[in-house]
Every structure is written in structure tokens, then in C-alpha cells.
Design goal:
It is built from 9 helices and 5 strands. It is mostly helical. It has 2 domains: about 1-115, no CATH class; about 130-199, no CATH class. The strands form 2 sheets. The chain has a 3-stranded mixed sheet, with helices on both faces. Strands 4-5 form a two-stranded antiparallel ribbon. Helix 3 crosses helix 5 and helix 7 (about 155-170) packs across helix 9. The longest helix has 18 residues, at about 90-105. It is globular, with a radius of gyration of 17 Å. The protein starts with 7 loop residues before the first helix and ends in a 5-residue tail after the last helix.
Length: about 200
């Protein structure tokens, strides 16, 4: 059982602040904190990309529902049920999923599905307040330390976030320009690596 007290309000404030960066229309969204791994797994089956017990949170297509696993409100943390050592800020995870819902509302199902890496990259951009340590990112890319993880999803999300954050900050792109621009993931990563201003 997850106990929710007044300590949830600073987390909510942080989530709202993060999401406000997107300037996307924001209406009511339902967020459920799930403490039961079996229930969480069953709920995740409605989203083929959810990843079951491997992921911290997911949103339900064609709904206003978000589910979060293993939430620790007191410490603003959450994590997947199958890995107790991996955590993420609760406010960060919820902001990420809310961004997915807001993007789907704005673009519609078909266009949103065509975004591919941009969808996850933008959600990560919002979740991390539009900030990233580019110097450290260059080191991480060179080491490819994330690739060694058997669950390669983490490295992909790192690349998505890096590409989105790099493009949006370097070219001062708003959401529409980022989405409509013909930006390729691999070419963006290559441009990032060769950008001498980030050394």
C-alpha cells in the first residue's frame, strides 16, 4: 500500500513546472501509483511498448491514464519491479508520461506514431527540464557504457534524449519546429559528436 500525504504536493508542483516547458495544452490526466507487480504487469499489456515489469511507468493509449511502479513519495523515487537497484525521480517519470499524452492530444494517433525517436526524445527533454550535460554525454557516447547493458533500451533513450535536447537548445526550436523538422537521429548524433563548441 502506497501512503500519500502532504509530501506529494511538492512533487506535483515539480511535475507541473516540468510539463509547462512544453507549452502544450494540459488538461486533467489520471496518474495511478501501483504497488502490486502482478497488477502492474496485467495493466501494461494494453500498451505493447510498455515493457511490463521492466519499466518504471507507462501511459495507456486512447485514454488519460498513467501507471507508475514502485513509487516512493517520501524520496521522490520510483523504479521497475524487476530491478530494485534502478530508480528514477518520480516527478521525472510522471512528467515523461504526461508529455506523451499531451503530444498525442496535439498531433493525433497517426502523426504521433510517425515521430519515432522524437516522441521519446521530447518526453525525456521535458522530464529533465530541458537540460543535459553535453560534455558528459560525449564521454558516455565514446565509452558506449550503456550498450553493455543487456537491456539496450536505456542506451536508446539516452540517445533520444541527447538528440532532442541538442537540437532544441542549439537551434532554439519550439515543439512544432522540432516535430516538423526533418531531423535524423543518426545524423544528429554525428553532428553532436563533431560539434567543437561542446568540447
Amino acid at each position: 500500500m502506497i501512503k500519500i500525504g502532504n509530501n506529494i504536493f511538492p512533487i506535483i508542483d515539480e511535475i507541473l513546472l516540468k510539463v509547462s516547458i512544453s507549452k502544450l495544452e494540459n488538461n486533467k490526466i489520471n496518474v495511478y501509483l501501483c504497488s502490486n507487480p502482478n497488477l502492474y504487469y496485467l495493466l501494461s499489456l494494453v500498451n505493447i511498448n510498455a515493457g511490463g515489469l521492466n519499466v518504471t511507468a507507462f501511459w495507456v493509449p486512447f485514454s488519460e491514464l498513467i501507471y507508475v511502479s514502485r513509487a516512493d513519495i517520501e524520496n521522490n523515487k520510483c523504479g521497475p519491479f524487476n530491478n530494485s537497484n534502478r530508480t528514477r525521480e518520480l516527478s521525472n517519470a510522471i512528467a515523461h508520461e504526461i508529455t506523451h499524452l499531451l503530444v498525442r492530444r496535439k498531433l493525433g494517433f497517426i502523426k504521433d506514431c510517425k515521430l519515432e525517436w522524437k516522441s521519446e526524445g521530447y518526453a525525456e527533454f521535458i522530464a529533465f527540464d530541458g537540460k543535459m550535460d553535453f560534455k558528459q554525454a560525449k564521454i558516455d557516447l565514446q565509452k558506449k557504457q550503456y550498450v553493455k547493458n543487456a537491456y539496450n533500451r536505456y542506451f536508446k533513450y539516452f540517445e533520444f534524449r541527447l538528440a532532442a535536447t541538442y537540437l532544441i537548445t542549439k537551434y532554439n526550436l519550439d515543439f512544432d519546429k522540432f516535430v516538423d523538422g526533418k531531423y535524423d537521429l543518426l545524423n544528429t548524433i554525428k553532428e553532436f559528436k563533431n560539434d567543437s563548441s561542446l568540447k
